[in-house]
Specification:
single chain; alpha/beta; TIM Barrel; 2 domains; two-stranded antiparallel ribbon; 43% helix; 13% strand; globular; binds flavin mononucleotide; binds iron/sulfur cluster
């Protein structure tokens, strides 16, 4: 069996993610039993949502009265602890989707359930009682409060995800930057009908793990998300065995064949910021220079980041290529005899070439986000 780390290079809380598929939470439905029935085909499971303080619990009771399925507990922390312990040895990473209003409520759950799980702040629920209580989607309008909750959880030592719904905030690009600045590790985004344009906008404005969600019901839909910025995809309504196993198998084949399971499209084909790893030297009239301008990086900085990043690696070579180094070369899926000749000379198989391009992209993004700290977020034109 191939090692999952070798395929995806994804780690959370020091544990390998088996496959870049998550179960997204559904209140009243997604609990330990639900997860155990699907454990062979996911890497992460967000159980809940659980309402964890008095205003959110009252809201849940009102929603249940109105006919919605909810998890209702007199002592939610004790119930959550039981669920977490049921999932302890099942081989996947547990996330807790939590609805609450105050930082202390979230920290209280962390103190009880420990640091092995992901703490997901539910800033997604749009039910009126929850929003009125000051939880769920309310937090997307009060980003100071959202940031306080993230900071409190991070201060306690938690791994933090924020579940958002695209299109609620007036500016999702700025929201992504706020969430990253506050210290969150993951943005879990329900893209609604916005699709990959919105995903790309978020990817281009933060450098943390992104879980893409909504109607990802087959491998083709998952692949679209991966090539526009997602690290992981999540499913709720269609998280049945056949759908999950089909997506899992597709991702595995893609990872084995390509070497970078979520490689971006080329920039001129609608790729996100990671595709700078495949871009040429900044010398011609093409989408590269306007893109660099938009993200606030000069062509020289882009050039220097790439040259520094490939120093001492096999990507530094490439005499037979357009710009004298594989640093500027296209994706392996774009046929090119000049690149392939250079790869042959340095004995670099295409799969390894793509792995090195992934490293290059990570290094370049790190430099870009360090350099552009404080520069306002950029929105996308939605073109692809
Ligand atoms: C019945 C139901 C309950 C849900 N409860 C929650 C919840 O408690 N917390 C949350 O963040 N999202 C909740 N969601 C949203 C889902 O996690 C997911 O974002 C949404 O269904 C879109 O993904 P899908 O197309 O894979 O279903 C719920 C969705 C459904 C259908
Ligand atoms: S630099 Fe090359 S890969 Fe990038 S947008 Fe221009 S033509 Fe496309
Ligand atoms: S040598 Fe081939 S792969 Fe490299 S930049 Fe030129 S066309 Fe692209």
């Amino acid at each position: 069996m191939t090692d999952s780390y070798d395929l995806y290079e994804l780690e959370i809380n020091g544990r390998t993610v088996n496959t870049p598929i998550a179960l997204a939470s559904m209140a009243g439905v997604t609990d330990a039993g639900y997860v155990l029935a699907r454990k062979d085909n996911c890497g992460i499971a967000f159980i809940g949502g659980y309402s964890i303080d008095a205003p959110a619990m009252d809201a849940s009771r009102e929603m249940a009265k109105g006919g919605r399925a909810e998890f209702l507990f007199d002592d939610p922390i004790a119930a959550i602890k039981d669920e977490v312990s049921e999932l302890k040895d099942c081989g996947i990473i547990t996330g807790l989707n939590l609805r609450g209003c105050e930082p202390a409520s979230f920290v209280a759950v962390f103190n009880a359930a420990g640091s092995d799980v992901i703490y997901e702040i539910d800033a997604h629920c749009r039910q009126e009682p929850m929003v009125k209580a000051g939880a769920g989607e309310y937090l997307l309008k009060d980003t100071d409060k959202l940031s306080e909750i993230i900071r409190a959880l991070k201060g306690a030592g938690a791994t933090v995800s924020v579940k958002i719904r695209a299109g609620v905030s007036a500016d999702d690009a700025a929201l992504a930057a706020i969430i990253e600045d506050a210290g969150a590790d993951i943005i879990h985004v329900d893209l609604m009908d916005f699709g990959t344009a919105k995903l790309k906008e978020i990817r281009n404005n933060c450098n943390i793990l992104i879980i893409a969600n909504n109607s990802i019901n087959d491998f083709d839909a998952a692949r679209e998300m991966f090539s526009h910025g997602a690290d992981i995809v999540s499913l709720a309504r269609r998280a049945d065995k056949a759908t999950l196993s089909g997506i899992r198998a597709g991702i595995e084949v893609q990872a084995k064949e390509s070497g970078w399971y979520n490689s971006p499209k080329q920039l001129c084909r609608g790729g996100d910021i990671r595709s700078l790893a495949f871009c040429c030297m900044p010398v011609k009239r093409c989408p590269l220079i306007p893109f660099l301008d938009k993200i606030g990086i000069s062509p020289k900085e882009y050039h220097d980041f790439k040259v520094e990043s490939v120093k001492g690696t096999k990507l530094e070579s490439g005499e037979s290529t357009c710009f004298g180094s594989l640093a500027w070369c296209c994706k392996s899926s774009t046929p090119c005899m000049f690149r392939d000749l250079s790869l042959k000379r340095v004995q670099l198989p295409q799969r390894e070439y793509m792995r090195l391009k992934r490293r290059l992209s990570e290094n370049v993004l790190k430099r870009i986000f360090e350099t552009k700290k404080g520069i306002p977020a950029v929105s996308e034109d939605g073109e692809d």
